[in-house]
Specification:
9 strands; 6 helices; alpha/beta; single chain; two-stranded antiparallel ribbon
Length: 214
C-alpha cells in the first residue's frame, strides 16, 4: 500500500507535479517536504507515513550560496538539515564530452546518482531545466515519458516542480494553468498547486488538481 509522503497530495511511487506562479513558494515548500521525509518528521497538518530515508533534491534554480543564504541568518546560525537530504546542482563548468544531447546527459547523471545513493525519493526543481521547452505538448511528452521510465525502473517517488504561464488571478486555478498542461497532467499520477489568496497577498493555499490514491 503506497504510504503518504505529504498528506493526500503525494504518495509513494507517484510522479507528482507541484506548480505555481513565480515567487509563491514552490521551492520553499519542496525543500520543507524534502526535509520532512529525510528526518521522518511530518509537517504539521500533513501526514507522513514513510520512514526517514535519503532524498535527492535536484536544485536547478539556486546556487549553493543563494541556498545557504535562504536557510541561515546572514550566513550564520544555519538551519540543520539531515545528512540524508542530498542537494544536487548543475556544474556549469563541466566539460561534457559526449554525443548525447544535454537532456540525455542530464538524465544519465540523475540515474547514476539514484543508483549510487540508493534513493527512492526525488525532487526536481524544476521541470523547465530538464527540457528546454515544456510549453509545447510535443516537447512535454518525451520529458514525462523519461520521468515515468525512471520512476518505474527504480521504483521512485518523484516530485517535479513546474511554472504556470501568466494567468488571470481572478479565476480559480485549474489543470489548464500548468505550463504544457495537457500532456504533463495526463502523464503524472498526481498534481497540486500553490495559489495566492485574492483577499490577502501574504496568504497561500494548496489546491489538489489530480490524485489517484484517495
Amino acid at each position: 500500500i503506497p504510504k503518504r509522503l505529504f498528506g493526500n497530495f503525494w504518495f509513494e511511487s507517484e510522479l507528482c507535479i507541484l506548480f505555481a506562479d513565480t515567487n509563491l513558494g514552490k521551492s520553499i515548500l519542496a525543500v520543507q517536504i524534502a526535509d520532512s521525509i529525510s528526518k521522518g518528521l511530518p509537517i504539521e497538518g500533513f501526514e507522513l507515513e514513510a520512514t526517514s530515508q535519503p532524498v535527492l533534491y535536484f536544485d536547478f534554480e539556486l546556487s549553493d550560496k543563494q541556498f545557504e543564504n535562504r536557510y541561515s541568518v546572514n550566513y550564520k546560525n544555519h538551519y540543520y538539515f539531515s545528512d540524508l537530504l542530498l542537494r544536487i546542482e548543475i556544474n556549469h563548468n563541466a566539460d561534457i564530452q559526449t554525443e548525447l544531447s544535454f537532456e540525455e546527459a542530464l538524465f544519465s547523471e540523475v540515474e547514476k546518482l539514484i543508483i549510487q545513493q540508493g534513493a527512492k525519493i526525488l525532487i526536481i526543481d524544476n521541470l523547465t531545466y530538464l527540457k528546454t521547452e515544456t510549453e509545447k505538448a510535443k516537447d512535454a511528452l518525451p520529458l514525462m515519458k523519461e520521468l515515468k521510465k525512471l520512476k518505474a525502473k527504480h521504483n521512485l517517488s518523484i516530485l517535479a516542480l513546474a511554472h504556470t504561464p501568466k494567468r488571470d488571478l481572478s479565476k480559480p486555478i485549474t489543470r489548464n494553468d500548468l505550463q504544457g498542461s495537457k500532456m504533463l497532467i495526463n502523464f503524472c499520477d498526481s498534481c497540486f498547486c500553490i495559489g495566492e489568496s485574492s483577499h490577502d497577498s501574504s496568504l497561500r493555499y494548496l489546491k489538489q488538481i489530480k490524485q489517484r490514491n484517495c
